[in-house]
């Protein structure tokens, strides 16, 4: 056996025994050479062999990391099966109750919708804000009114150009985060009583926006790998004549699905044939784990029907609440809705982010952020595989910072949420992601916070609670699942 094969086998045994765990970084080539007394060529060959075996992955500009063995992970969930009816919404109270739980700093925030603020360059942003304010002419403050700070809109247009989308800065409206952008776009293309197609499951913020505006949710089957089912969408269009569609084509919340490029093109073409606007929520697009940023559906829009919305809240500046909409043919309508409601987003925050982007370093920050998130995802997935009961299914994310778990039917996600909260752990239970009360045994977990002893312990506790719910004694007790039908909101066709 050659020297590099011997070294590879030693590392493989360390992985198998748990000495090296999922997400751990292998020693650098220099350190391995020094520790083993071998040449760089030997170390490289050993690492290439481990990569070919699927035991490690190469992270550009960073090194080699231990993979989670695919055979050790729970299976993935299948596509969802909503009933295809248009549903009136009444879920906000439940969502508010659950979201209140993630504000307590003593609670492990697995149910949070945000990554840890420790992952972001907040000191550099503060310096950028100080520099912006120091040289700002007081008369320039009117520039921050909708459509927004010209420097920031130019920087956003440059980000689109890097991604292959030639978009004029004049099409961009700066908003108070992506959620305001999405709400404004929804108002621009619908009237109360209209039906709007959404994924099943879908982001609960979309359901709240539909409820507030008196709209109905038309849930469409969605696969955790490839996104919304286009055949089911076409059938829903024929049956219900929806006025709009609100989707996440990239790292969907909560499933994490990434729609392939050819399906994005087909999606845009399908909606264009029926003249249905697509509100594309793309807040996680920069958090990809692959070699290049996937293109949004907006890239295939030739008729101005795609209203593309994003923000810096999930990838750069949480708390600054700076988002935007590129609303195509509806841009002027969105801008006027913005002016008639909140006038503008924070001027200092707009200026600070523009300053930061102009200084450079954003892509370097994003590379580090993506590496951290991918490592934390692997560690959480590995911990779930060891802690949760048989029958658990877990998504394989290609980006973002959420895992979607489908537990055995005996587990009531809302009851598990309450039990976990009493143990100092928050989770996001499946029913808050459904207009029709589905996903009663599902959870969304956030891996965007540091992987430490506290988080690892929280996963073990959740696994214990799920196992207990599956025990024969627990199945003998009356289940909260029985009453789910009674809690579902009314339907209308």
From TrEMBL:
Q: Name the SUPFAM superfamilies for this protein.
A: PLP-dependent transferases, Winged helix' DNA-binding domain
The molecule here is called Transcriptional regulator
List the GO molecular function terms. Answer: DNA binding; DNA-binding transcription factor activity; pyridoxal phosphate binding; transaminase activity
Per UniProt, the keywords (alphabetical) are: Aminotransferase, DNA-binding, Pyridoxal phosphate, Transcription, Transcription regulation, Transferase
Q: Where is the composition biased (Basic and acidic residues)?
A: 484-493
Domain named HTH gntR-type is located at 1-69
* Residue span of region Disordered: 473-493
Q: Name one Pfam family in it.
A: GntR
Look up keyword DNA-binding and say if it applies: yes
KW DNA-binding (keyword) present: yes
What species does this protein belong to?
A: Achromobacter arsenitoxydans SY8
Origin superkingdom: Bacteria
Taxonomic lineage from the root = Bacteria, Pseudomonadati, Pseudomonadota, Betaproteobacteria, Burkholderiales
Protein family (similarity comment): In the C-terminal section; belongs to the class-I pyridoxal-phosphate-dependent aminotransferase family.
Q: Which InterPro entries match?
A: Aminotransferase_I/II_large, HTH_trans_reg/aminotransferase, PyrdxlP-dep_Trfase, PyrdxlP-dep_Trfase_major, PyrdxlP-dep_Trfase_small, Tscrpt_reg_HTH_GntR, WH-like_DNA-bd_sf, WH_DNA-bd_sf
């Amino acid at each position: 056996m050659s020297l590099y094969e011997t070294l590879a086998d030693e590392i493989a045994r360390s992985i198998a025994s748990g000495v090296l765990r999922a997400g751990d970084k292998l020693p650098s080539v220099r350190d391995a050479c020094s520790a083993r007394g071998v040449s760089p060529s030997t170390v490289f060959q050993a690492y290439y062999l481990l990569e070919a075996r699927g035991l490690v992955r190469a992270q550009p500009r960073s090194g080699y990391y231990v993979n989670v063995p695919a055979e050790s992970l729970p299976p993935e969930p299948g596509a969802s099966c909503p009933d295809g009816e248009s549903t009136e919404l009444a879920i906000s109270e439940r969502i508010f109750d659950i979201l209140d739980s993630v504000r307590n700093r003593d609670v492990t925030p697995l149910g949070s919708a945000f990554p840890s603020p420790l992952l972001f360059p907040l000191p550099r942003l503060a310096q950028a804000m100080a520099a912006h304010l120091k040289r700002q002419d007081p008369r320039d403050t009117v520039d921050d009114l909708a459509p927004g700070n010209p420097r920031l809109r130019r920087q956003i247009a440059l980000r689109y150009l890097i991604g292959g989308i030639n978009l004029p800065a004049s099409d961009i409206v700066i908003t108070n985060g992506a959620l305001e952008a999405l709400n404004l776009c929804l108002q621009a293309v619908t009237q109360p009583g209209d039906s709007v197609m959404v994924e099943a499951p879908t982001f609960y913020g979309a359901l709240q926006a539909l409820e507030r505006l008196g709209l109905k949710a038309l849930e469409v089957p969605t696969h955790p790998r490839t996104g919304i089912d286009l055949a089911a969408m076409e059938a829903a269009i024929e049956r219900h004549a929806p006025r709009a569609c609100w989707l996440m084509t990239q790292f969907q919340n909560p499933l994490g699905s990434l729609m392939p490029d050819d399906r994005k093109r087909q999606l845009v073409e399908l909606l264009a044939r029926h003249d249905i606007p697509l509100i594309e929520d793309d807040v996680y697009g920069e958090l990809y784990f692959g070699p290049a940023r996937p293109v949004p559906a907006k890239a295939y829009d030739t008729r101005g029907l795609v209203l593309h919305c994003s923000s810096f809240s999930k990838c750069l500046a949480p708390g600054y609440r700076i988002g935007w909409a590129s609303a195509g043919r509806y841009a002027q309508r969105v801008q006027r809705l913005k002016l008639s409601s909140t006038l503008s987003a924070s001027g200092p925050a707009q200026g600070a982010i523009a300053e930061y982007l102009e200084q450079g370093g954003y892509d370097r920050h994003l590379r580090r952020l993506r590496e951290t998130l991918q490592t934390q995802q692997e560690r959480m997935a590995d911990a779930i595989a060891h802690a949760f009961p048989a029958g658990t299914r877990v998504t394989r994310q290609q980006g973002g910072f959420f895992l979607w778990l489908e537990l055995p039917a005996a587990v009531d996600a809302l009851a598990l949420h309450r039990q976990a909260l009493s143990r100092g752990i928050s989770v996001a239970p499946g029913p808050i992601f459904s207009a029709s009360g589905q996903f009663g045994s599902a959870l969304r977990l956030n891996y965007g916070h540091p992987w430490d002893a506290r988080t690892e312990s929280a996963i073990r506790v959740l696994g214990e609670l799920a196992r207990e719910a599956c025990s024969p004694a627990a199945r003998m007790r009356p289940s909260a699942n029985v009453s789910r039908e009674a809690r579902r909101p009314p339907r209308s066709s």
